[in-house]
Batch of 4 targets.
Target 1
Amino acid sequence: MIDKTLPSTVYRPVSAVQAKALRQAARSAKEEAIRLHEGAVEVLSPHVRMADWSKDDGYGVAVDVVRDGVSVQWWPAAVPESLALWEQGGIRQLCVALLAARFTVSEGDERTPHVVMLRI
């Protein structure tokens, strides 16, 4: 029996020129994400505690590359009560203010205006 509820994928061959263009576009997107990541860390690190992934108590602001951009978020590590610093402590607003001078910052939408993640 064939399950018709699953989406199917169709692969079509591409020319060498198309393949090269796709690789170049992917490389450019990756380079832009790296540039944004480095820029965000440069802007934020003098002003906020940055997350230290190597420590259990390394809570702080984490800058990460995501599919089509860069996210800036609070990483609570093993200290979940530190999440209050992001919202009530003003760290999210500080990050927005610092990043907005250099990047376009998305804070969410009307359904989730105070998300834990900012996107640049």
Note: The mean pLDDT is 82.
Target 2
Amino acid sequence: MRRLLLGAVLGAALTAVLLTVLWWPRSEVVHRSGAPPSVTYKDGSRHHLGLVREHSLSGRESWRLVVGRDPRLAYGHMLDVDASLGAGGIESTEWTTAGVRIRFTAGHELFVPARLFTYGR
């Protein structure tokens, strides 16, 4: 009976560890913006921007800005963002044919030229 109980406890513990490892790292899109229909790019695609927060198994948090034509933000032009800017969030985005300007609530601005995120980059 002890072996059966020990096996059940070990099995449950291993299952919990496996599920935890498979679940991490975890990412969450905390801000989304899409180019308005009035702004068109030479590649003919609609483009999207997202601020993504990633949580690692160790508890570390990192931030990434993704700009591209994939609405799921799985690929595109990616930029690492300082944690203090990411945590503060994005105040606004301004899409133009030249690119996209991102204003963070901390007062910083970032401009990403269209040539860096068009044509599937």
Note: The beta strands are 26-34, 48-55, 61-68, 77-81, 90-96, 99-104, 109-113.
Target 3
Amino acid sequence: MKSLRHLLIFAATLSLTGCSLISVTPEGDKAVPPKFPHDEISNAGWAHTQAQSFMAWASLMGTDEQRAAVDGRVVNIGGDWSDRSGMAWLLTDHVDSEEARIVADAFSQWEENADIPVRVAIYGSAQELLYLGCSEGEGAERVQPCV
């Protein structure tokens, strides 16, 4: 009876604080990203600035293929990809998974991303997932589909 009371208190605390055990993102390389959280980005200015910075880098440092896939085509960048359990979400105007793969390759080489493992989800114009990739970091030139 006592443990049931503790469980009810715990559940009430979770519901009052807005927490949910269901919304906890599983850790590991096999986590499936949710639908692009475009409407849930807490700092839309930061997401847009990240996209502008990434596109500027690609126009200067990317291959011709990357410039064509990235320049003017990335709307927002969200997420926290700074450690292995995080993921970047890029919203683009693409409709093709091959173009999305090229964007993911460029993203894995952008600034400090080239030195760290990066998981990246590329979303298209209808906010559908086009490509989910993982890079090994340390100068890897291509992301591989996450398994």
Note: Residues 44-61 form the longest helix (18 residues).
Target 4
Amino acid sequence: MNNLCFNRFTLRTDDAKIRRKILRWLALNYRLYEYHPSDAEVRGRFIPCKPFPAEAFRRQIGKLHNDGTLFLRIVSADLYTLYVEGNVYQRGAWHRIFL
């Protein structure tokens, strides 16, 4: 994927400190252009300069392994090639889904 990739995310955790840490990291490293918080979860969109930075997310989330309630789903789409990929962090492990 060499084109601009759009990413949608859903973030759930019972720990407000971890939620703020992940959202701050997203805002500082990517163009976070949509953000919808609710009591149960946060949904939003971001654009990286490169395709979905899986390794960066794995390193960042790996530091937060002690939160068993952390759920992060990121669906990446490249509109030019119709490429869609899903990455889900749940129960301490990353799962990758190609659509």
Note: The beta strands are 6-12, 31-37, 42-47, 71-78, 83-90, 93-98.
